[in-house]
Amino acid sequence: MKNPVIQTFPLSSPWQTLDPFLFSVYHLDHFPKGNGEMGPDESLLKGRSLGSDFNPSAKWRMYHGQTIPGFPFHPHCGFETITIVNKGFCDHSDSLGAAGRFGKGDVQWMTAGRGVQHSEMFPLLKDDEENTLELFQIWLNLPKVGKFVDPHFKMLWNEDIPIIEEGNAKIKVVAGTYKNVNPINPAPDSWAANPENEVAVWNIHVDADSEYMLPKANSSEVNRVLYFYEGDEIRIGDKKINPNFGIVLDPTQDVNIKIGSETAQIMVLQGKPIGEPVAKYGPFVMNTQEEIQKVMEEYRLTQFGGWPWPHPDNVHDKDRGRFALYPDGKLVEK
């Protein structure tokens, strides 16, 4: 049997992706204690480029935050964001009037469609210890027929997401059927909503000094990439792979992965390619540059519905638990 590894590549920020995915970024920040106002209890006067703090050598980053870390309001159009928060919390607010605080393994799935603004802030809720944040954000493209659908906001609570224990492995099934286990339904207009597209987002943890068998896909047409983001080493066939590498795999083969002396943390992104032209300008993703220009003009004219919140870096009350407020006014508290 031939080696299932097609290609390996070092992980940069953002991670390299294949169609139907556009972008994937992994944030791991060891934020300090909070200052009582959900910002860091450390000086921001030195060594911080506030408004653009992406220093990869820093223990933690403010990103575009000025007082609280995160990403103040910004637009998206033409694709979807899947945001997984394993540690820490994310405060979401958007131009639909939706809002939420999620963490502890929760996932937010947002279809930007014809256009939405949102903010993603990382409140430091603990004032007596570190506030570690571990977050993935994955951009899943929409096909031409879905570029201008209505925006959609969906929460996948950690308690509801299937987590499969298989030998020495735990597989968190965010999207895509894993063997006979179905995920929570994705957003309705998503490329992932059609099972034939075999879109999968699986976060896999495998114990040290053990093995794990990744099952093959049903179709040879899918792109499959494994991201090895934490551990010391893994082996696939005769190939040793160090951490912080991506691996493009042959989807037609079961893949036996041998784990080194540390627990391996792996993300798998898989899906049938959309196979359409991609035109991108920052947070806008269309099929042509002409469409990009039209979307930019629409944003200038309408601001995608405006911003109904008091601050561009809106955060929720410090003592608030996990919750989701939907555009129709429905409130879910966890």
UniProtKB/TrEMBL annotation:
Residues 202-305 form the Pirin C-terminal domain. It comes from the Bacteria. CDD domains: cupin_pirin_N. Residues 63-140 form the Pirin N-terminal domain. PANTHER family: PIRIN, PIRIN-RELATED. Belongs to the pirin family. This is Pirin family protein.
